Structures are given as C-alpha cells and as structure tokens.
Amino acid sequence: MYPKVKGKSIFLSYLLWLGCAVGLCGLHRLYTGRTFTGFLWLFTLGLLGVGQLVDVFWVPHMALYPKPTNPYVVAGAVGGWALARHQIKEQRERYERERQHKELLGTISSLRSEVERLRG
Question: What is the DSSP track for the chain?
Fold first, then answer.
C-alpha cells in the first residue's frame, strides 16, 4: 500500500488530537503524514467536529501505519511559520539595536557636554 515508514507514537498522536480543544484540529493527521486531510481538518475544525470524533478510533491505526510525508508540503507549512517567527525576531533585534544606539548617542552627547564644561 505505502512504502515502509517507521510507526509514530500513539501517545503523541492522541496528544495532538487533543489540540482540537484549543482549535488546532488535524495536528495528529499532519504528524502521521496525512497532510491533505490534516490541513482540511485544521481549516474546518475537524470537519465541524465529526471527523475529529471519528479519528478517536483511527488514531492508533494512523500512528502505527503513517504515510510517507511529502517533505515539500511540510517544509512549506513549517517554513512559513518559521519565516514569520524569524522576521519577528529580526524586528525585535533591530529595535533593540536602535534603542542601544540612541542610548549611546545620548551618552556621547553628555560626555561632550562634560568635556566642554571642564575645558571652559
């Protein structure tokens, strides 16, 4: 049916299934290599909860017999999230550098004033 893929953790699959409690349905499907239905569950709240309830019984099967994951699909989804996270980190670092730069300019200005006062 599918190429041999090492089984996934049933416990972790159930933990990801519980992600639906916070609106993240379908994570267990993404984890087990079912990317299309994983994103479908994610965007439809587990097919309005019906698919999520049916999956209670399917989680062990999906974990023991995962599909080989298309690395490009997963990389695209995870990459988009990672890129956004990276951009936020860069923005914070830039803000911190600008703040330090302004602080340094203020210190230089006060030192110049002090030097002028001592010369004067």
Answer: -----PPPPHHHHHHHHGGGGGT-TTHHHHHTT-HHHHHHHHHTHHHHTHHHHHHHHHHHHHHHSPPPP-HHHHHHHHHHHHHHHHHHHHHHHHHHHHHHHHHHHHHHHHHHHHHHHHH-
pLDDT tens sequence across 73-100: 555 555 566 666 777 788 888 889 999 9
CA–CA dist 50, 40 (Å, integer):
13
Distance of CA 47 to the CA centre of its chain: 22
Residue range 40-50, pLDDT digits in tens = 988 898 889 89
Residue 82, both tokens: 């990672």
Residue 87 near residue 22 (C-beta atoms within 8 A): no
pTM of the model: 0.53
User: Which residues, other chains included, contact 101 with Cβ-Cβ below 8 Å and sequence gap of 6+?
Assistant: none
Place of tokens 């190429």: 3
